[in-house]
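User: Hey, quick favor. My workstation is busy. Could you predict this chain's structure for me?
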Amino acid sequence: MRFVITKNVFENVVAHMQPFLEKKDASSITSHIYLETSNDVLTLKATDYEIGLESKIDSITDCTDGKATVNGSNLLGIIKRLKNEEISIETSSNNLIIKQKKSTFKLPMYDANEYPNVSKTTNLKDLSISTLNFITSIRRITPAIDNNNPKFELNGALLDIKSSKINFVATDTRRLAISQLQNISNEESQFIIPKKAIIEIQKLFLDDAKISYDDTNLVISNENTIFFTKLINGKFPDYERIIPNTLKHNFELPKNILIESIKLVTSLFSNIKITFTPNNIIFESLDEDTESKTQVDINLNIEEEFYLAVNAKYILDFLSMTDNDKIAVGFNESNLPFYLQDEKFRTIVMPIVLEK
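Assistant: No problem, here it is.
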């Protein structure tokens, strides 16, 4: 195998491969990137068996067909140090040789024929949804996906395809985030996408792509890239029973005032109490050692005083994903879950229970 390629083009693709490599065992073939040249096209693959990426580059020259594997981390380390000029890459015995002018680097290879082929592209159902809507929806709920929860289904996001709508759902047991789209033609289904996959999808795809799935896999592809992930095999909690059927209070608030006031009182401690009165909102820190408090005068058209005690991060995460200048706040009683909404995106937050 041999090819010549511009350094920055090659570096960009190799860098995108890094999250898909086996990190714990450098001796594993899945710590390697697979390279193959055929018909003047370079194909690169990386996988840790759970998640994978395949990219094609057609801007190569002086190409001889062949295939190789090389440790992905070591390869990127070398490429980063080179100048932004053409580099040549070729195989010799059991080594990959990287050259740029008078500089030469040699990396050991494994048998490319033993590289796993775990991507699935046949017998998949297409998900009829625009890539932009898909990315926007998963981006909104990403902060609410849990990390390393023993209930492994919570370490991912649910795609709940119903007859008339598609719900993107995530929860870390302290909050529930839901982003909703209209379903035009997809058949009803449910599957859970791992958090790692959701983070990488947002980096890789911006424009039109094909989204496909079956019971165990999700595949997203465009002209030069194929991304795949295994789905989480588990049953997501019955999230709809957590959503309040009725709300005693529901009003809109300016987003910028909420952000400014919350940040003002959370510089030292993240837990806050927000008190709503007929004519103002009081924000105060729950830190026992210091006092942080601010007040915003606003007519809420309510008759009695209520409060919400909460980790401010949950509110700020929600506000950072909203598009409009005003958001809706809904609640029934103090110390009960409350509701934040921006059109088709909403978050239900579990409060910090305070003694009345």
